[in-house]
Amino acid sequence: MISFILFSACTVYKDPLGIYKITQLRLDAEAIFRRQNTAVSKVMILTMDEENSTLAEAEQDMMDSCHELNAYAIRIRDKLGDDLIAQQRVLNSLDACAAATRKLEELVQSGAY
Q1: Is residue 108 within 8 Å of 55, Cβ to Cβ?
Q2: Predicted confidence (pLDDT) per residue in 26-59, tens digit
Q3: Burial state string for 50-68 with b = 16 or more CB within 10 A and e = fewer than 16
Q4: Is residue 6 in some structural domain?
Q5: Which of 3, 37, 85, 86 is deepest in the core (most CB within 10 A)?
Q6: What is the pTM assigned to this prediction?
Q7: 53-65 helix and 19-46 helix, angle to the nearest 10 degrees
Q8: Helix H segments across 1-113?
Q9: What is the residue range of 48's domain?
């Protein structure tokens, strides 16, 4: 019982407001946003001369999965202020966005499209 209390106290004391976790999530979201933009740029270059349905489909899946992140980035760009509900939607969709981005990146890198 005493060890549990000490462990709990250390955990709370170390990051009482979860600031580290919030900061890490923000950094992860920014990194995913940048990776997504890089992947879209590469797709644009690869499909300049001809349309590729496999790449287009993977890109659309990524855009759908990353909708909340992109909408929030636009909100920040336009200086519309913080929206806690929008932030929560971004957090809830971040894993799916990262997975869809990774899928498009792998497709572009492999050249198997």
Answers
A1: yes
A2: 899 999 999 999 999 999 998 888 888 999 999 9
A3: eeeeebeebbebbeebbeb
A4: no
A5: 86
A6: 0.78
A7: 160
A8: 2-14, 19-46, 53-65, 67-77, 84-110
A9: 17-110
Q: How many domains does the chain have?
A: 1
Write out pLDDT tens, residues 59-104: 999 999 999 999 999 998 999 887 889 889 999 999 999 999 999 9
User: Is residue 2 domain-resident?
Assistant: no
Residue 83 zone, left/alpha/beta (φ > 0; ψ -120 to 50; rest): beta
Instruction: Tell me, yes or no, whether 11 lies in a domain.
Output: no
* DSSP-derived 3-state class of residue 111: coil
| Overall residue count recorded for the chain in this entry | 113
Establish if 1 belongs to a structural domain.
no
* Residue 95, CA distances (Å) to 5, 37, 49 in order: 33, 17, 33
- Indicate the burial class of 11 (C-beta count within 10 angstroms; 0-12, 13-18, 19 or more): exposed
Cα–Cα separations (whole angstroms), residue 83 to 25, 88, 89: 16, 9, 10
